[in-house]
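Hi V.,

You were right to ask for the full record rather than a summary. Here it is.
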Amino acid sequence: MHLTSEQILDEGITEREFTLGDISGILWTPPAASTSAPVPLILMGQPGGFGTRQMYPRLVSRARSVAAQGFASATIELPGTGNRPPLPGAEQARADLLRAISAGERPTEKVINRLILPLVDKAVPEWQTTLDEILDLPEIAQRVGFSGGVIAVGTRLAAIDSRIAAAGLFAGSYVPRTTMEEARRVTIPLHVLLQWDDEGNDRAMALDLFDAFASTEKTLYANMGGHTGVPPFAGEDAARFFVRHLADAVD
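Predicted structure:
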């Protein structure tokens, strides 16, 4: 991990930007984190199509909330966003998806696969590489949560990486059939947020995905409103979820 910048935010939170080969990201650690008192880590997913610079105000706000709970947090630039080269075919697939939604049609499985699967295939190994490096830091405990971002990315990561102990997922995007199959391998505690009137999501598909998760402890947290209408108190409930599953289980 190569550190490219470091600063201390007002709350005493250390913000470090880093690169790992082609991967770039940001790590935030609370002032209480130390080698003698390592803190749990929450990986903060990002929505597709924006990039870290555009999302930074929201990301740093989330990082401050996470730090207030005593946790570190990290995010990485998704493949195809920011200054990274676009994923082949992603722009056309996104246009085809939006065209179907605008016409009141259900996007085809082929379109969903073209848009989502290349992103998942590339993003998940990058998250794992990042996790390898961050967990080597002595101030970070071996207890990890995953929060937000593209739900297909979070689902696969939770299905294949035993280091993820709990996940808060946002059911705000279409998912391939592959993701439904991977959900049946997810057994960790889940907190799934669903905006009931999300204009860019298929509610029935989101409910089917929730049903597919094999977790014995899973909560569906549904609110009225569209994609960007998540109420502030929803974040408070998600924070309590991570405290319950990470704070009392530090190695």
